[in-house]
Structures are given as C-alpha cells and as structure tokens.
Design brief:
About 20% of the residues lie in helices and about 40% in strands. Strand 6 and strand 7 (about 140-150) form a beta hairpin. The protein has two domains: about 5-195, Protein Transport Mog1p, Chain A (3-Layer(aba) Sandwich); about 210-350, Protein Transport Mog1p, Chain A (3-Layer(aba) Sandwich). It is α+β, with helices and mostly antiparallel strands.
Length: about 350
Amino acid sequence: MRFSSLAFLAFLLSSLETCSSGEVAAMGLVRSHRHSNLFGAIATSTPIFSLSPSRPIFNLAQQGYSAVRGTKVSLIQPAGFTPADSFSGFQQLDTGASILVAEFPAPYPIVSNSFTTDTLKSRGMTLISKENVKVDGYSGLLMQVEQVANQQDFAKFILVFGDEAETVLLTASMPKDLQTRLAPTLKKSLLTAKWQKDKAVDPFADLPFAITSTPALKFSDRLINCLAYTQDGTMPVKSAAAPMLVACQSIGSARVSDREQFAKERLEKTALIEKISIESGKAIEINGIDGYEIIATASDSETKESIIVYQVLLFEPNSYYIIQGRVGSKLRSEYLDDFQIMAMSFKKKSNN
C-alpha cells in the first residue's frame, strides 16, 4: 500500500510545530483521508512579534512582485513587509503580521475539500467565511478564520490553489485588534500570487543549515523550512514502515528552559504515531550546537505497525532545529545508524 501525498505532507508538517510559539510540526505519514496535519502549516503562521498599533495602513500601490524564497511563488508584498528569516514568506515585526507560503505535492481538489468547519475547528480555528476564487488562472479557495494562540486573538486569511498534482498554500496572519487596518491589504496581497510551476528552485540555497544525506536516504522535497529524505528520493512513501527523515528550522521563536522536557513534549506532538515509549535520551553537541537526542519506539496510529523514532533537537537562544527519522522496527538495524549519521552532519551555514 502506498502512502498518499497528503500522508507525506502530514509527516513533514509535524516536524515544524513548537510547543509554545506556534510552529508547525512535521512528522506524520498519513493516507489521503488523514489530512488533519495539513493545518499545522496554517497554525504555524501565528504571529509572534511585538505589536505597534500606530503602524500606518499598508497599501500595494506601486509595489512590484517579490519572489518568495525557496518557492516558485511570487506576490506583491505589502509596503513595510520584509522577507521572513525563519520561514518562506514575509513579515512585519512591529505589527506581528505575516504571510507564509508553502507548496506541496498533493492534488488541489483533495486539499480544498479538506478545509471543513470541523477540521479547522480541530486545529483551533473558527471558520468565518469561505469563497471560491481564481489565482493566476488556477482554481482556488479563500477562507477567513479566527484563532486564539498564546492567549491572543488572531485573524487569518487562508488561500489554497493548484492543480491535479500540486497545491500552493498561503496564510496571512494578523492580531485581531489590527484586523480592520490590515485585513484588506493582506487579502489583496494573497490574491496577487503568481505560481511559476516549472521554475527551477534550489531547495537548499536560502536555508540557514545544511545536512548530508547517506546512500540509504535520498533528498525528496522541501516544505517551508523542512527538508525530507526517503529511501528512493520520492514521495509519498510506500508504507508506514518505510524509512524517512526530515530536518527543519523552527518557525518563529521558542525560548526553551528545560531542554529534556521540551524534547519529550516535542516528540509527543509528532503526527500519526501513538504509544510512544522512550528507550534513551541524552544531551549531545553537534558542530558546536547543544541539543538533545531521543530514540523511541511507537506505533503508527493507523496501521498499528511498530516503528522506531529518532529525534534530535538542536537549540539556539530563541529557536531550534529538529531532525526526526522514523522507520519500521524490523528495519531498525538498517536505518537507525543512517539517522544518526545524518543528524551528526548537521551544520549551520557560515553566513548565518
């Protein structure tokens, strides 16, 4: 049985989520109907910056198109926004507003049908409105939602569009008390999106980190700040037991006081696994960065197959990196060493 693209998406998204700052989590291979973790990318874009209510109203007048780093998407960014440091998109630090852009190999018709009131509610979002739109000639769906995160109210526009093979997702987020001023321009900005589907994009160039693959695990794809590796370099993978590894930079800021506890909580947020039992955990250092390594057993939440999960968190003062691999328990001896070798190869690029 082959896992669907949405399944692999959930795996990716689960490795992007933080416990306290609202990133996405990116680890959970699901099948086509298991789409709930798609919404991790949306929840991820919760603004986490300081607010300045006196900021002038944005406009798109005389603004040119700006390419979104790491993607094939460009759009007219609102005046005063700058490229984000920790995700593909744009942000404005003093208002807390942001635009996050992601591409993934899942059919648009399936993805758009996943955005139900109940599914959004399961991710802590209340659907306010939904409308069909055209974006760069593609069919699209534009939604307005509200969400409470970190004890603050946020308003969001979620735009998805694409074709039978791929989907583009854009999320514009803003503090709810600034919605009247920001919403019209952020909505217009999303709808200016252009998608150069055949554009060649170096998936590694703008990331602040590098990781070296092994012969057993080949690069597959990138989602936001997450690199995915599979046995044959393609996705979706063939089964719940198939080996996969992701390496991601956290989105937003995360100040961690208890690294061991944070790492354990982070493991519990991994998508589509259950009955987690930690075999070992220890503090480590990789290329001058302190971290915490966990090896655990678990079960795939759908197939109930026994799997091994390997996780390393590497901590920066206000953020972290996560490397997470999983494989069927019967393949442990073949791939656990590869997970560890790839984790030990992690390094920050010299210009970051």
